[in-house]
Amino acid sequence: MSETNPAAAEVAAPHRYTAAVAAEIEARWQDVWDADGTYAAPNPKGDLAGDPGLVAKPKKYVMDMFPYPSGAGLHVGHPLGYIATDVFARFQRMTGHNVLHTLGFDAFGLPAEQHAVQTGEHPRVTTEAAINNMKSQLRRLGLGHDKRRSFATIDPEYYKWTQWIFVQIFNSWYDDEAKKARPISELVARFESGERAVPGGRSWDALSAAERADILGEYRLAYASDAPVNWCPGLGTVLANEEVTADGRSERGNFPVFKAKLRQWNMRITAYADRLLDDLNELDWPEAIKLQQRNWIGRSEGARVDFPIDGEAITVFTTRQDTLFGATYMVLAPEHPLVEKFTPAAWPEGTHDVWTGGHATPGEAVAAYRAQAASKSDVERQAEAKDKTGVFTGAFATNPVNGEQIPVFIADYVLMGYGTGAIMAVPAHDTRDFAFARAFELPIRCVVEPSDDRGTDASTWDDAFASYDAKIVNSHGEDVSLDGLGVVDAKARITEWLQRKGIGEGTVNFRLRDWLFSRQRYWGEPFPIVYDEDGIAHSLPESMLPLELPEVEDYSPRTFDPDDADTSPETPLSRNQDWVDVTLDLGDGRGPRPYRRETNTMPNWAGSCWYELRYLDPHNSEKLVDPEIEQYWMGPRAGQPHGGVDLYVGGAEHAVLHLLYARFWSKVLYDLGHISSPEPFHKLYNQGMIQAFVYRDSRGFPVPAAEIEERDGAFFHNGEQVKRELGKMGKSLKNAVTPETICEEYGADTLRLYEMAMGPLDVSRPWDTRAVVGQYRLLQRLWRNVVDEATGEVTVVDAEPDETTLRALHKAIDGVRQDLEGLRFNTAIAKVTELNNHLTKAGAAVSRPVAESLVLLIAPLAPHIAEELWRKLGHPDSVVHQDFPVADPRYVVDESVTCVVQVKGKVKARLEVSPAISDDELEKVALADEKVVAALDGAGIRKVIVRAPKLVNIVPA
């Protein structure tokens, strides 16, 4: 009846579980949860302190990566991780844990500012509207968040502490001896007492305030410097590397981007490079993420070598100091600060024409090449281009091992961001150097003996030879020889020689660069920094925090001629002169003085570097976080030597940005004694992505997926055949499905189950709206096993279940329990479905103990229907804090299992045997089976392979 006449079915079954019933149940229980504070996680103290008994439970801190509230709202792909952590958190509550699970909003950022530029509407207005919309969407999914702990990074009471942390970092330095951050005041005291020598040799008292500030700037963990940046005149702002396309243009607007030097704030994350590497070993993270961080940090051991030039030196870092005798030229990054200093007025006599680039003087050649390089992105410059470009500076340096004069070039394949921004070029043993040497007719000298038959005359080679397992040749001078040594021994010998001569030393280098922390934008945290009349930076005292964003008339950056690299950004904050120029008493004993505020803002990463701490103690106006509360939720413990969040779920795309930055901030705060956990996140889990089909017309433009017609395996839109491909889901691709759509048609519990059942959580999977109905039917059958659809009465009976049902129940309990603990939600749902189907097929009224256990099993996954059925089963308390069922081991082990018997690889019999049967017993039973005897037909037996209790394979003679 239901198939042919749905309306009649509804009349016949007025108490059936439908989308309308689901909507009513879900809205009602969400209101109850909010009113009762069902998900409130008590703290050991403070304004969120609760029942001491709950706090005494083992704790579990579960977190999602900070969402950014988009004005477009959520599509069904967004909540995947949020539903997963909710299921896990609910399971943990039911297994006796005090669970902290909440969600805030990472609300500063470029999208809201772009909207403000276009419309003139304040970014706070649009951002708060987006937050409210997202809260409404997430609430409908029944997520069990402690809403008392939620916040947004744009809340002044939140970014007060972001600014406070910046001040702590600014007022700290990294003590290499103690291997930790310490207050800058301790460094000053050492300089004052003479315990530590002042750079330059003068006494601390003899230095001016500006000179002292310059020296301290070389040590501070947050410092301002002239840094190379991606400057986009067409947008009027500096861009992060991620905002620059591979062809050196802005992702937004497609304007040219240039390398420029601007005064910027930086974080000295490089001081922590070794600790960031070492502590990865103790974290429960995916190996792929650990590998990305290790590669990003890029630790390499080598040597620093000085190449004398004009009474000074060009310093290089090399990991192949054993090849020094093969260095036949040098290359500096075009931005290297020594380029202009060593560029002569005229070309040296005998300069090759190919070296000059056709320019009359070295100065002209260098200037032209620098302009060319400035228009390229780092990605372009590092690409393995066939044609190598560069220009001779007109200068020669001295190779320290043999005294040879070698030419100094600039070339864009060398970056200031790695090493010292200068390389010694050994073309015989480096592919890029080899190509450059061939292009510029430079000597190529073999110093590592090839393992093939090419010989040692490198001028005849087609490419470089690189090896770490070969002999060194052609490498001897007056007082050092490496000939005949292996690479390792040659490195050790030349390093000792360099150190003895005072022209180098063994050292460690990192690919990691200090974190550029300035943005020339409005919608970000203001820096708590002011400058005095001498240009010296001072941090604001805590009493002046938060420093709130001022109002401005125009959010637009000042734009310039897109092709004019010789311009500088004008920040929106700089236009509010009343805010910029202030008179303040900083409490340093100097009284009120005029100051100028910093007019850059912090990057959008700032607020997400420490938000896991604010969730712990969100209303504390006196401290970043109470130490006792932080220790309770995040402190080190058995199995978690560095502490941190117990489970952190989010996308793998944040591997080397957010995750690395957050680890750095945690370590600084730990060093300074503000927290007990040197790592923010103990266990990291990367969820996959929900994908969707994208349909493109003949122009390649996406067309609405909802309007596609499928005919005979082809796809059509308005009669035109279109192409289908699997990709991301999103508004721009016209394939987004909103959670509201699914909730209205099936209910939120169905959506939750479908997303968790689609496949393993860490694997991407395609969305199929037609498949959602499968989970809807599961819930309908579950409802029908407890509630009479005609009367609405509970149908369970108080009889004991039969043994078959007991075995089905306890196997499900055992399996679901393990699956939920291991985040294997898809297989947990399969086990619940199997148990529910068993009860449905039995055809009899369900035993109360079985029905209650089934409701408890599905409660973490489908909480609304579980609450409703739990109440209908006569329980006045919420299902949320009930104990999760525990399997009886007597019923988990099968009474018998099916053993397959094969003869000549073909199945000839299936035997029901004990799970504990031995190999010898199973072999006897199999050989005695009449079907096996018939299959052998008197033939002898050459071999019997037994895998008790499930397989016997007989090989006849």
List keywords for this structure.
single chain, 957 residues, alpha+beta, Isoleucyl-tRNA Synthetase, domain 2, Ubiquitin-like (UB roll), six-stranded mixed sheet, four-stranded parallel sheet
Give the gist of this structure.
Helices cover about 30% and strands about 15% of the residues.
Account of the protein in words:
By secondary structure, the protein is α+β, with helices and mostly antiparallel strands. It has 31 helices and 31 strands. α5 crosses α6 and α22 (739-745) crosses α23. The longest helix is centred in the C-terminal third of the chain and has 19 residues, at 803-821.
Topology, pairings included?
Blueprint: H1 6-12, H2 19-36, H3 52-55, E1 59-64, H4 80-94, E2 98-101, H5 110-119, H6 123-140, H7 156-170, E3 172-175, E4 180-183, H8 184-193, H9 209-217, E5 222-232, E6 237-239, E7 258-267, H10 273-278, H11 287-297, E8 299-309, E9 312-318, E10 329-332, H12 339-342, H13 353-356, H14 362-374, H15 378-382, E11 391-398, E12 405-410, E13 422-425, H16 431-439, H17 487-501, E14 504-510, E15 515-516, E16 529-531, E17 537-539, H18 577-580, E18 581-584, E19 593-597, H19 611-614, H20 627-634, E20 647-650, H21 658-671, E21 684-686, E22 690-696, E23 702-703, E24 709-711, E25 714-717, E26 720-727, H22 739-745, H23 748-757, E27 765-766, H24 773-784, H25 803-821, H26 825-842, H27 848-858, H28 863-872, H29 889-892, E28 897-903, E29 906-913, H30 919-928, H31 930-936, E30 941-947, E31 951-956
Parallel strand pairs: 1-2, 1-20, 10-12, 20-21, 22-27, 28-31
Antiparallel strand pairs: 3-4, 5-6, 5-7, 7-15, 8-9, 8-14, 10-13, 11-12, 16-17, 16-19, 18-19, 22-23, 22-26, 24-25, 25-26, 28-29, 30-31
Helix pairs in contact: 2-28, 5-6, 22-23, 23-24, 24-26, 25-26, 25-27, 27-28
